[in-house]
Design brief:
A two-stranded antiparallel ribbon has the order 1-2. It contains 6 helices and 2 strands. Helix content is 66%, strand content 6%.
């Protein structure tokens, strides 16, 4: 098995990291969650981040956590469709293919995103808001995806 360092993957797929963080920013804005700091891309770990206020709403945390999944997935589908349409245009189709792979590779929420949603859900359950248990399978999905 070949080990490829994360920083190298990040450099090769940097557009996906940028779009991932923009997904968090967009959903923070749409959910009314205040952003306190952000970085779209850098060479050290984490390679991008969005720091936002803590919110009592597990649903808002869910939206912010899965923002990159929604945004990156839609953009990956659109880029793939355009790639299919311009399959004969050599330099453009190669660029579109790389861009679609880069954006798609970073569509899944990170473990840090999962940890935030987990903490928010557990705090809510401690306050007897049992309906928020519906978000626990999503956290499990995030951690399972991170293992793969």
């Amino acid at each position: 098995m070949i080990f490829i360092p994360g920083w190298l993957v990040g450099i090769v797929t940097f557009p996906g990291i940028i779009i991932h963080e923009l997904g968090h920013l967009l959903l923070c804005r749409l959910a009314g969650v205040e952003v306190r700091g952000w970085c779209l891309f850098r060479l050290k770990s984490p390679q991008g981040f969005v720091i936002h206020e803590k919110t009592e709403s597990v649903f808002k945390n869910f939206l912010v956590t899965f923002g990159p999944f929604f945004v990156n997935s839609v953009l990956t589908i659109l880029l793939t469709l355009v790639f299919i349409l311009v399959k004969e245009a050599f330099p453009l189709n190669t660029f579109l293919f790389w861009l679609a792979i880069s954006v798609g590779a970073h569509s899944f929420p990170s473990r840090g995103d999962g940890k935030n949603l987990w903490n928010s859900t557990i705090e809510s359950l401690k306050k007897k808001r049992v309906w928020n248990a519906v978000f626990l399978p999503f956290v499990t999905l995030i951690y399972a995806g991170a293992l793969l």
